[in-house]
Amino acid sequence: FHNQIGILTEVAGGPAPMTTSSGQFRLRQAIDYSVAANRAVLDVASRQRETWLLNMYEMGRRSIERGSSDWWTESPHRPGGGPRDPRLRDPRAYIVPADQPDFLTATKFVIALFGTGITVHRALDDFEAGGRKYPAGSYVIKTAQAFRPHILDMFEPQDHPDNVDDERGMQRVPYDSTGWTLAFQMGVRFDRVLEGFDGPFEAIVGHVSPPHGAIAGPSGAVGYFLSHHQNDAVIAVNRLLKSGERVFWLQDRSSGIASGQTGTIYVPATALATRLLERSTQELGLTVTGVATQPADVGLKLKRVRVALVDRYGGWSTAGWIRWLLERYEFPFDVVYPPLLDAGNLGSRYDVVILPSEAVPHHGGPWKDLPDAAAIPADYADQVGEITRTQTMPALKRFVEGGGTVLAIGRATALARYLDLPISQPLALLPARTFLVPGSVLRAAVDNTFPLGYGFEKEVDVFFDNSPVFQLQPHARRSEVRPFVWFASEMPLRSGWALGQEQLQDMAAAVDVPLGSGHVVLFGPEITFRAQSHGTFKFLFNGIYYGTATEARLH
After folding, report:
1. Neighbours of 419 (CB within 10 A)
2. What stretches of 220-316 show up as alpha helix (H) in DSSP?
3. Is 205 exposed, middle or buried (0-12, 13-18, 19+ CB in 10 A)?
4. Dist CA 229 CA 101 (whole Å)
5. What is the mean pLDDT of residues 21-48?
6. Of 523, 472, 463, 533, whose CA–CA distance to 498 is shortest?
7. pLDDT, tens digit, for every residue of 75-88?
8. How far, in Å, CA of 339 to CA of 536, rounded?
9. 109: nearest Cα among 94, 127, 124
10. Residue 443, class by beta-carbon neighbours within 10 Å (0-12 exposed, 13-18 middle, 19+ buried)?
11. Has this prediction a pTM greater than 0.90?
């Protein structure tokens, strides 16, 4: 997709020797393999350089030609041949409008494109294309450029064959992720423009940076609104709470910046709050609106939350990505390990415990790759252990019943059966020949009037990797158990491959389960997948604040 030779190498082995059928395999052998492979690549490249360079040039030239004319990209469900629907041809450009609810995240998406060599234009003034008007500051990504296939891959759904049989006459299934459309994962609004056009555009050079924000509204404001739809608003919230300022989520949908947006963030004006918000507009590009009169509303008052992120000795990759997110969005947190959970009394130290997807062995047994405790340096002895049904789960249950919140993501939602929560996972036992959705993007419905769904539209794209889904048991009362994300369609697939997707209809993807004085929040999809699913980050952010937020008047 970048007109180059791409080689992925994976070599067995690590610092510790491993035993193979050929004997001991040490780090030395792994290094030798890599050196030999690199020398082979350099040798072939030097011998075939003219052919390869010419082919790279031809690939780029053909991409530019295709982006400059009518072209239909073939795929398993859109084969070539016969009359072609002009509405299904590839776009001449994609437009990312500047007036979308979270333009800052859309800018992060454009930064990702720009960083891989894509040419991006920014509109210097308002313009019109494809029968629609767009504001200045919008991004325009034209497809008449050398890396056109990569552009399409980031905007268009991935399409896989579903009627291929193997030599045994059985349907072949993908072995890895099948859908990753980044614009979908990041919740970016964009338009496909099928005809050529031009306008007041300039190509971005150097680097892409978010536009500066500003505090709009009257001088002498009594308070400020921030849109909950902006992911980066959570950074401002964390800075305000750290400084002792008051922050609320508004429950009245008529209050706030834009009609229909939910959970608008309200900050009473103080000298310090004003300075912090002015800093956020300049550093983050946030849009803040001052108001002359205080909203006549009761809001959810937020609290500075003590967060524990569960990890293990050596680290889980899913915990690492969440750790990066918590750092990036300036949440106060500690990384904790199973021995601390087992010790109990968690409520004296933390308000929220986050369980990443790998944290809970979903079959109830121990992890297979636990390190030998005797081989671990003494400084790390308190990190060695595992989450168990007999010791850890009772400790987590006491933590929740005492007022804490547990956020379980992906496979970690297996703790629901250990805590005897009134939900089931009806698709978990289905065989792969009946239900299989490996690493794809699905469309789900969101209750955005519920605090855990604040800041979302009524639908959201989620990354789903054979993820758990939930059904309330007959004795569970909806007044107590609250599904707030669910699959409303029998065909939720947006990008990738799905076998038996119709069985997802009406299944819950995320559920809030009160337990004692606290909450267990279950997120089946991978809402923090590799820190790239920006469109669902707010589920994590909302979950962190949710359990300790209390109704209060705004004065």
Report:
1. 17
2. 233-242, 271-284
3. exposed
4. 6
5. 91
6. 463
7. 888 776 667 888 88
8. 31
9. 94
10. middle
11. yes
Q: Give the Å distances, CA to CA, from 54 to 1, 44, 50, 58, 514.
A: 16, 15, 6, 6, 63
Cβ–Cβ under 8 Å, residues 354 and 310: yes
- The amino acid sitting at 399 is F
Q: Contact, 268 vs 223, CB < 8 A?
A: yes
Q: Which two tokens stand for residue 205?
A: 């050079």
Contact indicator for 431, 411 with CB cutoff of 8 Å: no
Say which residue the tokens 């800018």 belong to.
Answer: 107
The pLDDT tens digits for 97-125 are: 999 999 999 999 999 999 999 999 999 99
DSSP state letters, 132-190: EEE-TT-EEEES-STTHHHHHHHHSPPB--S--B-TTSPBP--SS-----HHHHTT---
The confidence score (pLDDT) of residue 276 equals 97
Read off the pLDDT of each residue in 295-311 and give the average, rounded to a whole number: 92
Instruction: Kindly report each contact of residues 445-450 with a partner whose C-beta sits within 8 Å and lies 24 or more positions away, as own/partner.
Output: 445/485, 445/486, 445/487, 445/488, 446/484, 446/485, 447/482, 447/483, 447/484, 447/485, 448/262, 448/263, 449/253, 449/262, 450/482, 450/484, 450/512
Strands (DSSP E) found in 516-549: 518-523
